[in-house]
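Quick one, tokens below:
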């Protein structure tokens, strides 16, 4: 094993076991080079691996801050695919497609997709992070607007297919966040540990021309995510 990779693995072990605690700084590059008897360039390579995987944040003049790798920040205000979010998640992620069905739009979904008739896609995916199944995504897609979807697109990224292959512009989403009790099935397909509640994010997603094309129900195990937003004070308008 190349030395910087061995140092990376040793530092990662010390972070995960709590020797280097969350929200504290690692020893300086100079100190680490003495500890591991190597050059600072070798240390930088190891630290860059930790940085890329989201375990540390480099702060100029202060060093490498250990991040809270147990909680993933999920942007509420943005329209972000899980594929894009993967770049910010430490460790290994996988997607399993449980359901991929194209059918006539059902009476229950017509209102959610603003459709009277036509085809829709019903897609269910489970997201695994570091060996734990912690997200259940259920998507209903307007098949008259988004055509030609395949299972491979669901395994990879729906938004990538829509934007890169169909050349459509995804613009905005309306979201509702609640906490719900997990169903018996959800308890079985997700690794719930001692939890019986899920954070439920319902989203209605639109194209640039205002066309509603997707209704999503996304359920998250509550200990793994922190939902964040940037809020600006505008004041309340009075009549």
């Amino acid at each position: 094993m190349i030395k910087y990779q061995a140092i990376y693995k040793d530092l990662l072990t010390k972070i995960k076991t709590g020797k280097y605690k969350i929200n504290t700084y690692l020893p300086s590059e100079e100190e680490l080079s003495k500890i591991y008897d190597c050059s600072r360039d070798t240390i930088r390579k190891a630290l860059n691996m930790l940085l890329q995987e989201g375990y540390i944040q480099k702060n100029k003049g202060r060093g490498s801050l250990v991040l809270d790798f147990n909680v993933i920040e999920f942007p509420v205000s943005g329209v972000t695919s899980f594929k894009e979010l993967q770049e910010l998640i430490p460790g290994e992620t996988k997607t399993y497609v449980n359901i991929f069905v194209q059918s006539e739009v059902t009476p229950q979904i017509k209102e959610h997709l603003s459709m009277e008739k036509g085809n829709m896609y019903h897609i269910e995916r489970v997201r695994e992070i570091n060996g734990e199944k912690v997200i259940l995504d259920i998507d209903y897609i307007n098949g008259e607007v988004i055509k030609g979807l395949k299972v491979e697109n669901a395994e990879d990224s729906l938004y990538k297919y829509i934007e890169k292959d169909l050349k459509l512009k995804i613009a905005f989403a309306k979201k509702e966040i609640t906490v719900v009790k997990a169903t018996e099935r959800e308890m079985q397909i997700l690794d719930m540990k001692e939890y019986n509640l899920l954070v439920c994010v319902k989203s209605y997603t639109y194209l640039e021309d205002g066309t509603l094309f997707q209704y999503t129900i996304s359920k998250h195990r509550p200990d793994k995510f922190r939902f964040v937003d940037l809020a600006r004070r505008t004041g309340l308008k009075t009549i």
